[in-house]
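Q: Convert this sequence to structure tokens.
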Amino acid sequence: MNGEEVLHAYEKMLLIRLMEERISVLYKGDTIPGFVHTSIGQEACAVGALTHARVSDVITSTHRGHGHVLAKGLEPDRMMAELMGKATGANNGRGGSMHVADPRLGIFGANGIVGAGLPIAVGAAFAARERGDGDLVIAFFGDGAIATGAFHEAMNLAALWKLPIIFLCENNGFSEFSATADQHPVPISARAAGYGMESITLPGNDIEAVSDGIGPVFEQVRAGNGPVFVEVETLRVHGHYEGDPQVYRDKEEMARDVYAADPLTLTRGRLVERGISSAAIEAVEKRVKATVDNAEQFARASPQPERSTVMDYIYSPRRSVDSRVVADPDGEVISQSKIIKQALDDALSADPDVFLAGIDVAGGNVFGLTRGLAVRYPGRVLDTPISESAIMGLAIGAAMAGRRPVVELMYLDFLGVCLDQLMNQAAKLRFMTGGAVSLPLVVRTQFGSGRSSGGQHSQSLEALLAHIPGLTVVMPSSGADAYGLLRAAIEDDNPVMFIEHRLLYEKKSAIPGEGFRVPIGKAAVTKPGKDVTIVSWSRMAMHALAAAEELAAEGIDAEVIDLRTIAPLDRETILGSFQRTNRMVIAQEAVVDFGVGAEIAAMAVDSGFWSLDAPIVRVGAQYSPAPYAPVLEREWEAGPGDIVAAVRRVMSC
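A:
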């Protein structure tokens, strides 16, 4: 770096330092709500690493991310306003200190979950590689993230696919309140060797060493040579969070380290050695202080978000569906699994931004459902390792970068191993960025009891997913709905959980035609009736129709509603039917307790109270894991007979 470059870097570092010091003061004065984690002492890491970055390069960051986003170009006034929760903030006051983002500058977000940005960085890097314009991703993370599963899965997938990503670990010596030396059995940089990944270690408080050392890494990664692991050894001056008393650190030792390794002091000394005049340095310092003062003034003067906007930015607007296109009743009669495959085939053909990824999907998946698509669409149907968090992060990062991923979670039961990426990332990123991004992604998965699959392969977990604002949950029953809903989900600009029932895969019906779509959030009345409403979804919708046929022989005219979409819930259709029949039975495959049926029942006795002529009865599995023995599983799960019994009960009232 020449003198002018060092001076420019000093200005950026000083901006971060003075902003962080001002933020610390404002936080103590209760001007900034929420948690705050400052990066004082680590300024050279962010500025040095991003010296070589393009605006179109992407970064993912950490809960200690102020320095990263400022170094990437975020305006100080917008960041300060965001921390104060103001409407003029970078994210309209929806993100706050731990979630600052600006995708237009390639800032895909700081993150309140340790290590969670790493799988998202992999998705962004995949999208960058496919664009082929030489962009790359810098994934910032702390030494504590090395111990997370997300770190392993992201490193492994990035190395396997040779993605353009720099994994940049800021090793500041502490993982929250614990010394790094007490957290890891091997040196941090040694981890890279396990993935066949090159690694370098740089002195993170020396701006020239960081910038000069990482420059060749940028060139190497841009050239398509795969990811590189960079460790920068640095210093955390303040505690894990603002207000942390740091009782776990030796005060005298810390004071010595801060004095000896302060990157601002070191850089200012270099400027003097390079012959940069005091006047030039002081002009920079005056300019930066004015910038920080202006940022504070701007944020203080900015308005609070309007209360009426509290529900903004949760979902992207839904695309309208042409209701004039109806299913072709004369279409070829094939199995539901083949109908789903055709929907995927048609989506891949229609939009080059669509791609499929997941465990064994290129070979056809565990049910052979995607067989042949990898040959037909080279490079767009991708096998991944058994890394569910990385798969979900791949989808999130790629969707933020403009692709339309369809990823597969082999079994719904495996949700637990990747729930963070769905619950805290996919569901919240549009909201926490103040609507700056859309996440057009689909997670296909399947479930189903009835085949002795046991407690870890039979669960119906839609209630868990439906309880997460920002996610859309779809569960088709018929072949036509499976096609129409899957095509609509892929074209939707929101994260959609598309849950198939494996025991319906071989049920045959007519394929509805390429133009057929089913609107998300709209239930279907699959059988009109006047005596009782049966609300159901997925395979239970088929059981409900069978039960209605049996009840008809007894003179009971049941109306059957197939929800098709669990979230958002079509309350209007349910309540409209209830108003006509005045009785309701809710049938779900999941355990009865705390389920979707409970939400519908609560709605019926609240909004539909004046329609209530009998108790609302729920039908479902007993409150137990799914048994393995067939005789026990049949006793545990619900079927058409249970629905019939429940209807008889409400009709007797």
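The mean pLDDT is 94.
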